[in-house]
Amino acid sequence: MIRKLHHNAYRCRDSEATRAFYEDFLGLPLSGTLEITQTKSGRATHTLHTFYRLDDGSFLAFFEAPDMPFEFKSQHDFDLHIALEVSRETLEQMFAKGRGAGIETRGVSDHHFIDSIYFRDPNGYVIELCTKRAEHDQAMDPATNGAREKLRRWTASKPAPRQA
To answer: Residue 10 phi/psi, 5° resolution?
Structure first.
């Protein structure tokens, strides 16, 4: 059985710029680095893997691999993002901190069960900080929220995929 998330890993452009955002701005301590000189397939590489610890003991991790091309694509607001839970007080403090630091800062967005603010890290990834509202647990309870029925209706109403 899966116990919990250990880490999510993402590519980064620059390990130090990434560290400055995640450690200095967000407050996630740099907890580990792994320099990789050879892949498991035997290919020589020059890659740095860094880990930033969250309060629950899990990590956000990043790979800087200058020898391997990677296209950082512009992300739509709904595309890939990392959502991190914080207290209401921290949400408000980070909103002000982001604006004060000149970091692209959006929000506060009312999602009915959480309130969220958003930043972009130096790699273009959207970072969401969210705080639970009183309705959170009920809204996320599949026994009462109708999640499966909503998914079924959504799937049934989608137009057929376009043929290439």
So the answer is: -135, 155
Whether pLDDT at 9 is above 90: yes
pLDDT, tens digit (0-9, with 9 covering 90-100), for 58-94: 999 999 999 888 888 887 777 789 999 999 999 999 9
The pLDDT of residue 64 is 96
CB neighbour list of residue 138: distance below 8 Å, 6 or more residues apart:
144, 145
